[in-house]
Amino acid sequence: MKILVCIKQVPDMESKFKVDAGGTWYAKTDLAWRMNEYDEYAVEQAVQLKEQVKDADLTVLCIGSEKVKETMKKALAMGCDRGAHIADEEADKKEPFQIAGIIAEYAKEKNFDLIFTGMQSQDRGSGQVGILVAEMLGMPGITTVVHFAYKDGVIEAKRELEGGVKACVKVAAPAVITCQLGLNTPRYPTLPNIMKAKKKELLSVPAADLLKVESRQDTAKMYFPEKKGGGLVLEGDPAALVDQLIKILKEKTAVLG
Amino acid sequence: MEYTREIYWNVGHSAGTLVPMYLFAFVAIGLLVKGFLRRVEVYKQGLPLDRTDQRGRRIRYMLENVLLQKKVARVRWPGLLHGLFFWGFGLLFIGTTLIVIQADFTDLLFDVKFLKGTFYLLFSIILDVAGLVCIFMLGGLLVRRYFYPPEGLETKTDDAVMHGLLLTILVTGFLIEGARIAVTELGTPLSYWSPMGLLVAHGLSGMGEGGLRALHKVTWWFHLLLVMGFFILIPLTKFRHIFTTSTNYFFGDLGPKGKLINLDLENEDAETFGATSLKEMTWKDIFDADACTLCMRCQDRCPAFNTGKPLSPMKVVNQLGEAAFHNPEANLIDSFSKEALWACTTCRACQEICPAAIEHVRKIIDCRRAMVLMEGEFPGEEVMAAMEATEVNGNPLGIGYAERGDWAESMGIKSLAEDAEVDVLYFVGCYGSFDKRNIAVAKSFVKLCQAAGVKVGILGKEEKCCGEPMRKMGNEYLYQSLAVENIEVIKSYGVKKIVTTCPHCFNTLEKDYRDLGLEVEVESYVVFLEKLMASGRLRIDAKELSCTYHDSCYLGRHNDIYAAPRTLITAAGGQLVEMDKNREEAFCCSAGGGRILAEEKIGERINIKRVKMAAATGAQTLVSNCPFCLTMFEDGVKGAEVEESLRPQDIAEILAERIV
C-alpha cells in the first residue's frame, strides 16, 4: 500500500503577527513554526493505517523553503517512511489551486492508495487543497473526517457536518481524506524514532518542476480586523456594581425594555 | 594481686573447646561470605556506575554516618535507641575480639596478656554497661515495633528473628558472666567492675558451684551457637544492613546533590533510553534495595504518599529489590505502577532523610525517561501539550516566544542583544517572563538590582525554558535541546555571572548545564541579594511583617540554602514563625519534578495541605522563593479558603516594598 500525507508548516498561532511590507501576507519575523494542527491528525492517521496494514510505504510531502524540513522531520519521527520536499521560497504567495496542482502533479503517476491531509491550514484556512487534489487526480475526496476505518480496500469514515451532525461515508480506495480535530491524538515521537528520522530519505524537488497550473485568485490585501468595542471589567463594591450594570444595560442595550 | 580473669574459665582452653569453636566460626563466616557473594551476583545484573572515586571523601562520609550515626540520629527517639544499641553492640564485639586475640594469639604464641590490671577493670565495666545499654535499647525498639508501631511500619519474620536472637545473645551473655562471677569473684573487689554480672551472680548464687558450672558451660556453648547463627543470618535477613547500609555510605552520591546522569543521546548503539527493566538500572540501584531497612522515613515525608497518591519511595526501592532477587525479567514500570512514577515531585525529602544513603529519585526519573523517550507517554495530555508548546515556543505555557522579554521594557531593562555590557545576566525563567503573578516578582528583583546599582540584562526572546520540568518528567531529549541552545546564547555574549529568581532554573544552570559546557558562575537571587545587603549596596527599611517561610525543595534540600532567605526576611522586618515542617523537612508545594505541567488528579491537593500548614502558624504572609511554589500557593489559599488571611509573596516582593 502506498500512502501520501501532505503537511504544511505554519506559524504558531500564539505568535505576534504583523502584516508584511507587501501588505498581502504576514511578516515572517519573530514567528515560531510548527506543523499545521490538522495535518498532525493526518500524519497520525496515516501512521496508524500503516501500522494496521503493516506492508505500506508512507511518504510525507511538504511545500516550502528549506526550513519546512524541520517540520517534515517531525512527521518522519512520527512514522512516515520518506519525505518529498517541494522546494519553494515563495510558497505563501501561491494560492490553494496552485498548491493542489503541485501536489497532484507530484502524485499523479505514483499510484497512491490513500492521500491524507488536514482539512485546512491554520494560517490561510481556505480548506481547498485537499478537495482540489482529489478533483485533479480524479479520486473521491472525503473532507472533515473525525473517524476513520480501513478494511480490505474500503474506507469507512465519519465526516463532521454543521450543527453536530455527522455523515457516515463508505468508499473504496484510492481516495483523499482531509482530517478534522477529534480524529485522533497525534503521538509524541519517541527518541529512537527521532534518531531514525534523521537518516530517512528526504529529497527536494523544485516547485517549478511540478507547477503546471495557473493561479486563479490573488490576495489583494491583508489587515487586522478593526477594533470595535471590547470587554468592560467592572470593579468595586457589589452594590454599586449592580447600579452601574443596570445603568449600562439601560443605556447601551435593549434587554431591560 | 593483679586484676584479670581466666579466659575460657570452666569451658577449658583445650582442643576439645577450640576445635569445635573455630570449626563453627569458620563455617559461620564461610556461610556469611557465601551469602554475600550470592548477593553480589545479583547486584552485578545492573549497569556499571563509578562509585569508587574520591575515596578519602567516601570513607570520611561512611565513618561519619556509621560511627557517629549522624543520619540515623536525625529522627530523635528511634535514632537514639539505634545509635546507643550500635555503640553498645560495637563495644561488645570489640571486647569479644580482644578476648580471642589474647587467648588464642598473643598469649598462646607469645605469652602476652593485656587484659589485666586497670585495663581489665575498664574492659570489664565497659562491656558490662554496654551489654546493659544494648538490652535496654533493644527492648525499647521491640516495644516500639510490637506495641506502639508507627503507622505503616512493616513488621516481618525478619524482625522477630532479629529481635529474638539479639536479645537472647545479650541475656545469655549476662548469664554466662553471672555464673562465672558467682563462682570466682563473689566477695572480691573485682566483682564490682561488673555490676550487671554481679547482680545476676547474686541471683544465681543459691545454685551451688556444680549447678553454676553446668549452667555456665551449657549457656556458653548455646551463646556461641547463637552468635554463629547471627553471622549466618546476616546476609539472609535485614541484619545485612550492618554491611550493606555502611557500604552504601561509601558508594553514596557525592553530588552535586540530585544532579541527574546526562544521557548520551548521540550514542548510535543505544537501543533503549531510561529504565524499564533491571538490566537498565545500575548496580547501585539494586544495592540500594539491599541497604534499605524499611525504616519508613522516606515514606513518612513523601508529599505524594501523604496526600493519598500511589507512591511510596520505600516501596519503589523494595519492589526493585524484589525484582532483582526474584524476578529479574520483570517490567519495573509495571511493578512500580505508572501513577506512582508520575506522582513524584522530586522534592528529595526521601533522599535527604534516608539513613541508608539510598537514591530514590534517580530510579523514578530513569523509569520516566523510558516512558517518555521510548513510548512517548506522559501523565496526561496537558503534559504532552506543554512539551509541544516548549518545542515550538520555548516555554511550557505556549506563549509566543517573541514576547518573552516584553515584561522588562517598562523597567528599562535591555536584552543582551541590545546591550551586552552588564554586571549580571538575569535568567528570568518561563514563569517570571510570562506569568502575570510572577512577572511582579521579576520586576521586584530588577527594582532591587537597580536600587543597588547593579546593571542587569536579560536574554529576552533568546532565552528558552531551562528545561528542568521536562527533564524531571523524563524528556531528556527536549531538555538537552533547550539547554544546548541556552548555553550557546549565554556563551556568545561573554556573560560573567548569572542570577536566577527560580530555584529550578538555578539548580539546572548551576548543576545540570555543567555537563553540557556552561562555565559561568550562577547564583540564586537570595544569595545575591544577601551579599548586596551585607556590602551595604542594597538598603532595606525594616517594616513589620507577620510571616512564615516556605523552603522550596530546590533552594532547600537540593542546594542547602536555608540561611540567606531567612536573613533577608528578618532584615525586611519579618517576624518569622516557622512551620513544623521547615528546612530539610519542608513539605513540597506539589509543583516540582515537572508536576507544574501536570494536573493533580489523585488524592488530596498537596498545595492545599502545605497552605494549611502555613495558615496554622497564624502568620499573615506566606513567603516563598520559587515561581512554582508561588503559583501553587496562590491557588492553594483559595482551595484552603484562607485567601483573606494568608497572602503568598516572594522574598523579592517583600524586599522591593522596603527599598530605602
Q: How does this structure look, described?
A:
The complex is a heterodimer of chains A (257) and B (660). Chain A has 257 residues and is α/β, with parallel strands linked by helices. Chain A has one domain (2-210): HUPs (Rossmann fold, 3-Layer(aba) Sandwich), CATH 3.40.50.620. Chain A is 29% helix and 26% strand. Chain A has seven helices and eleven strands. Chain A has helices spanning 37-53, 68-78, 96-107, 129-137, 191-197, 207-210, 238-252; strands at 2-7, 9-11, 33-35, 57-64, 82-87, 114-118, 141-151, 154-160, 166-172, 175-179, 202-206. In chain A, strand 8 and strand 9 form a beta hairpin. In chain A, helix 2 crosses helix 5 and helix 3 (96-107) crosses helix 4 (129-137). The longest helix of chain A has 17 residues, at 37-53. The model of chain A has no long low-confidence stretch (mean pLDDT 95). With 660 residues, chain B is mostly helical. Chain B has four domains: 15-44 and 54-250, Fumarate Reductase Cytochrome B subunit (Up-down Bundle); 278-375, Alpha-helical ferredoxin (Fumarate Reductase Iron-sulfur Protein, Chain B, domain 2); 393-532, Rossmann fold; 534-656, Rossmann fold (3-Layer(aba) Sandwich), CATH 3.40.50. In chain B, 53% of the residues lie in helices and 5% in strands. Chain B is built from 26 helices and eight strands. Chain B has helices spanning 15-43, 55-67, 76-110, 117-146, 157-184, 195-204, 208-233, 241-250, 283-291, 297-301, 313-326, 332-336, 338-343, 349-353, 360-375, 381-393, 430-434, 436-451, 468-472, 476-492, 503-510, 525-534, 563-571, 606-615, 627-639, 651-656, and strands spanning 424-427, 456-457, 497-500, 521-524, 545-549, 574-576, 621-624, 647-650. In chain B, the strands form two sheets. Chain B has a four-stranded parallel sheet with strand order 2-1-3-4. In chain B, helix 3 packs antiparallel against helix 4 and helix 8 (241-250) packs across helix 9. The termini of chain B are far apart. The relative contact order of chain B is 0.08. The mean pLDDT of chain B is 96. The chains are: A alpha/beta (257), B mainly alpha (660). At the A-B interface, helix 5 of A face helix 15 and helix 16 of B.
